[in-house]
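Subject: Sanity check before I submit

Could someone independently write out the structure tokens for this chain? I want to compare against mine line by line before I put it in a report. The sequence has 103 residues.
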Amino acid sequence: MDNLADTVLGLYWFLNFCSDDELDPDVAVKEIENLSHSIANAFSDMERMALQEAAKRSLSNWLRGPDEHGYTPRRLLTSDQREFLEEIAAGHFAGPPDNESDA
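---
Independent answer below. Compare away.
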């Protein structure tokens, strides 16, 4: 179930943070609403927990310490993206507060 949860998280991430050139903002908002509704009303508790765990894994990956070359992706993670992952990890599935793209 991890692979499926990671895929759903990736889609949710894309819808929330894609640029206007990648996807019309009205379409993105509608799809975010549809996905949020599905998660809240059609996903089982186990599926929602798997999505929460996917967000925790993703957040841990973004925030990992520097490797042997000093690289860490944490500087690339915006505050909205971090909040998005933290909210999902906590079981809140409505996307970032302003639903705006950072891309």
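---
OP: Matches mine. For the report I'm noting this point. Helices lie at 2-17, 25-41, 45-62, 79-89.
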